[in-house]
Amino acid sequence: MSLVQQPRSIQNFLSMPREIRDLIYLALLQPPTEPPSAPENAGPRFEERCGDPTLRMFYSVELFPASAHLNLLRCNRQIGTEFQDVLARHGASQPEQDFRLDLMTQRDKIWPTWIHFPGSTERIRNLDVDLRVFDETREGFVTDGGPGSSYRRLWWLIDRLFKYGPRFISKTPVPYSLHVETLCLNISFERVAPSKNGRASHGALARLFWWRLCGVVQTGRISGKVSRLKMRIGHDVSELEVEGDDIEWNRWR
Question: Least CB-packed of 6, 80, 145, 150 within 10 Å?
């Protein structure tokens, strides 16, 4: 009976101590990637209309979180078993499980890209969402009546994260309740021309977003899903407890 020879690289890897292999598995789970510099440099994407003509999502064909795991799970039975063990041991309890999601938005389009995705888990300590606005004005993001379409798309995508998991487009809800300890929205305007009253405009923008965040908390939309909300625009940072009774509506005056 002939035996199939394993590649020498796999033989060398399996000859390492198990503790070393586990560290390598963890390192492969947690490599951050660089965000696209601009929508025109976003790489291969496919579009989802979501039944709303004003809502166009462009998902990466290469950076789905689960795809990084599939090669390890399939390349070798022993490696797959060990990697599944690492996922089970470091999924929900690992304190380093911080996630980062980049969202580029321009007019009626948004490009989501996971920048740091350690692995599927039911609990996330910190989820940073970098919302980068590439419109040349703030009109597509902020209107006289409140936040514009880009802000609504942001919460639409976050709702899908909690329902369908990090792939967003799954047709089947995840079989667990995802919980985020701290959700931080980092908002930046990449191509907005400087305002004549830059500081005043900045303060009004921060106040507008803070009011909307308070409104989201007050409606109970994220109750039980997020413990703490943070918002960062420029150098201004504020946060609130989702389950707290007192909401500081006048954080910015």
Answer: 145
